[in-house]
Specification:
Blueprint (H helix, E strand, L loop, with lengths): L23 E8 L12 E9 L2 E9 L5 E7 L20 E5 L5 E6 L30 E4 L2 E11 L10 E5 L4 E4 L3 E3 L14 E3 L2 H10 L3 E5 L1 H7 L5 E4 L3 E2 L2 E2 L18 E2 L1 H9 L9 H18 L8 H7 L17 E3 L5 H5 L5 E6 L5 H10 L7 H19 L2 E6 L8 H10 L4 E4 L10 H17 L5 H5 L4 E5 L37 H18 L3 E5 L11 E4 H8 L10 H25 L1 H9 L9 H20 L14 H25 L5 H25 L7
Parallel strand pairs: 6-9, 10-21, 13-14, 17-18, 18-19, 19-20, 20-21, 22-23, 22-24
Antiparallel strand pairs: 1-2, 1-8, 2-3, 3-4, 4-5, 5-6, 7-8, 11-12, 15-16
Helix pairs in contact: 1-10, 7-12, 8-9, 9-10, 12-13, 14-15, 16-17, 16-18, 17-18
Length: about 725
């Protein structure tokens, strides 16, 4: 059952009060003597119980001293159990749940998955319902609501029924998949900014923006302002508010607590592992063990959820206190639903086993670098396909969710390859991801608003066309788990692609030379895991990558591959030549230039060789620098220009998949080859057109070979 849905409640049998079909009973409560009214407080409450349309109905009318009023209707059998004092053995979900907000709108909330009423997740435990019925079924003299005591002013019995609004806006909520954005603003102007040092200009979401997002299939809104709340409350979406008061406006409290889409004032716990690892980046080897650093992360996550601070914003109770609003007891149980937002994807098991409802990865899915650098470092042959990149990341995310009994998700960042972001969303959905989000703000991290809408429309269309099985089944779909020893991570850097970083991004655990207590290298363990991944990917088998924790025993995998055993057998060590691949390239280029010079010098001393070269139209080849140096310079500069505009590869696929970039690449190649041909003509005036064309073609082919070779080596540009 989905986590936001109200837990099933059993029928109350202890209340022996019956309501005639055409009568109702009611009571009015006011703040008890000694209780102080404050901002956001309810000064009086009217409770009416009756029947409408053959169903029991409870009407709750909340009023404040300022004149604001909102109402809640609960329709269904055994509704009296909601208002009974003391603990009760589970109550049934109501048949309907309606709210009239102080703005006058009446909303009828439904669960789009089941069609039943949708109530707030904290409904039964957040102190939102008045416990106004005593053990006899009558209205109690005193009751508590929002942490305050209320006294009964009057009660009555009436022959009239309880009126349920006939006209109400139906709002369907579905939390099986949450498609959302991470801020309440967008880029002011359309298009991408490719300079990582230049940020976008941003503007707050307007009402039309929210409607456009809802139409595109976005059903999660983050950091909603008081003004924006009026625009989103009738949309089929969940939301988090930015703060209670902002720019002189105020979110209506406590009525917002009765909106089933309200998820509090915190959106996620931000990067516990990333922030912790920054403090251990320069710790010398021997300062900690892998097990110790893993436990430090687990303790950090536990502390964050228990006490707040660190990676969390202010809790709902703290925000309410800042606005002089008394928080109902138990309301901070909303914090139990907070997901963890993280760059370090392989730390999910450590974090979720302590707390958090879900683990969301910062998706900078950049093909083809990930399979390329894994293959190069660990001497594997993982297929260089976009699917391989995603299978690699999702194996860690889904595995952590399964082992810990939680959810997982991903967020598309601006650095993600636009050509493959739709595939990333589809594959995540098909593997049970709950959150499919988009990152907004901060330079190149920002995903432009227009792309967010396009991606949302695409994945929502895919969801409608391909309804999935329950999330829990998809999360548990893999039969095989590749198990890393406790304390390990599998580091792949989101930014620099030249080499695999150290474990935990710390010098304390170097991938070059680092060893476990038994003498097995860290590299051997990760290589064994990479080879097992290659095996699974090539066989087309679903797999997860998990950490060896006690929860693994009940995760239900049929095959656990503990790679520590493979590593002990292989005794592999890090191939140090990988660290010097760029120097090797420069040696090759230098050797080529030296060889050309030697050939030129030999040509000067050999009339026969010189004659042969002259017959080829290379009379001045005795001065090879005239030809070799411009040629090499052209290759490097042209490569740099093309990478600057985002052309990742001429064969694998450009990052900027648009005709303008492709045209630019072709024009640069043609002009460059023409320039070199012109230089050839100047050096060798009597060279024929065939020799000139051949030389230009040779330069073009050499450029493509050099371009792809440098990419394979992991460089962004040979001159940058």
């Amino acid at each position: 059952m989905r986590s936001l849905r109200l837990a099933p409640l059993a029928v109350l049998t202890a209340i022996n009060v019956s309501i005639a079909a055409a009568e109702s009973t009611g009571a009015r409560y006011v703040l008890a003597p000694g209780e102080k009214a404050g901002a956001g407080s309810v000064d009086s409450l009217h409770v009416q119980l009756g029947v409408s349309g053959g169903s029991n109905v409870a009407l709750l009318e909340f009023s404040s001293r300022s004149g604001d009023q909102f109402s809640v209707w609960i329709v269904g059998a055994a509704l009296r159990s909601y208002l009974a004092a003391g603990p009760r053995p589970g109550r049934p979900s109501p048949g309907r749940y309606l709210v009239r907000f102080s703005s006058g709108e009446v909303l009828d909330f439904k669960d789009s998955f089941t069609g039943s009423a949708r109530t707030p997740a904290h409904f039964g435990r957040g102190g939102l319902l008045p416990k106004c019925l005593d053990d006899t079924g009558g209205f109690a003299q005193e009751m508590h609501l929002f942490g305050r005591k209320y006294a009964r002013r009057s009660s009555y019995r009436s022959p009239s029924r309880v009126d349920v609004p006939r006209e109400a806006t139906r709002v369907e909520l579905d939390d099986d998949v949450l498609i959302g954005t991470s801020r309440s603003f967008r880029n002011a102007r359309p298009g991408r900014i490719y300079d990582p040092d230049v940020d976008y200009d941003y503007t707050p979401f307007t009402k039309s923006d929210y409607v456009a997002m809802a139409d595109a299939g976005i059903n999660y809104f983050d950091r909603v302002t008081p003004r924006q709340f009026d625009w989103v409350k009738a949309l089929p979406a969940f939301f988090v508010i930015d703060r209670i008061e902002k720019d002189g406006e105020r979110v209506p409290f406590p009525e917002i607590l009765y909106h089933p889409g309200f998820l509090g004032v915190e959106d996620f716990v931000d990067e516990p592992a990333y922030l912790m690892c920054q403090g251990y980046e320069h710790v010398a080897p021997g300062g900690y063990t892998l097990e110790q650093i893993a436990r430090k992360l687990e303790d950090r996550v536990g502390l964050i959820f228990a006490e707040g601070g660190h990676s969390r914003r202010r809790t709902l109770a703290q925000r309410m206190a800042e606005a002089s609003i008394v928080a109902p007891p138990g309301l901070d149980t909303i914090a139990e639903q907070l997901p963890i937002w993280e760059e370090h994807f392989s730390t999910g098991c450590y974090q979720l086993r302590r707390s958090g409802s879900s683990f969301i990865h910062e998706g900078r899915y950049d093909f083809p670098y990930v399979p390329g650098i894994i293959n190069e470092t660990y001497r594997t042959r993982i297929p260089v396909r976009p699917e391989s990149t995603l299978l690699f990341y999702y194996a860690f995310l889904r595995g952590a969710a399964r082992v810990c009994g939680k959810d997982w998700g991903m967020a598309i960042y601006g650095q993600a390859d636009p050509a493959h972001s739709p595939l990333a969303l589809r594959m995540a959905y098909e593997r049970g991801a709950r959150q499919l989000w988009f990152w907004t703000s901060d330079h190149s991290h920002h995903l432009p608003f227009e792309e967010q809408l396009e991606l949302a429309r695409g994945i929502r269309q895919h969801i409608r066309a391909n309804p999935r099985r329950p999330r829990a089944e998809l999360v548990r779909a893999a039969e095989v788990a590749i198990v890393l020893p406790y304390g390990f991570t599998f580091p792949v850097d989101d930014y620099q692609k030249r080499r695999i970083p150290d474990l935990w991004r710390s010098r304390a655990f170097p991938i070059v030379g680092g060893k476990m207590p038994g003498g097995v290298s860290y590299y051997a363990v990760l290589q064994a895991a990479a080879r097992r991944m290659e095996e699974m990917i090539r066989a087309g088998r679903e797999f997860d990558v998990v950490i060896d924790v006690p929860e693994l025993d009940r995760a239900g995998y049929t095959d656990l591959i503990r790679v520590a055993d493979d590593a002990a057998a292989s005794r592999a060590e890090f191939p140090r030549w990988v660290l010097h691949k760029e120097q090797a390239l420069m040696v090759v280029l230098l050797a080529y230039v030296l060889a050309s010079s030697i050939v030129g010098l030999a040509a000067r001393r050999s009339e026969q060789l010189k004659a042969r070269l002259q017959s080829l139209g290379a009379r001045t080849f005795g001065a090879p620098w005239r030809i070799v140096l411009p040629w090499a310079l052209f290759l490097g500069l042209e490569h740099h220009l093309l990478t600057a505009v985002g052309l990742e590869s001429m064969f694998i696929g450009p990052q900027r998949d648009d005709w303008l970039t492709t045209l630019y690449a072709v024009v640069v190649l043609i002009l460059g080859a023409a320039a070199v041909a012109a230089y050839w003509q100047k050096c060798i005036p009597d060279a024929g057109p065939r020799a000139t064309a051949a030389y230009a073609a040779t330069v073009g082919v050499a450029f493509i070979v050099e371009y792809e070779f440098v990419l394979w080596l992991g460089r962004e540009s040979i001159v940058s």
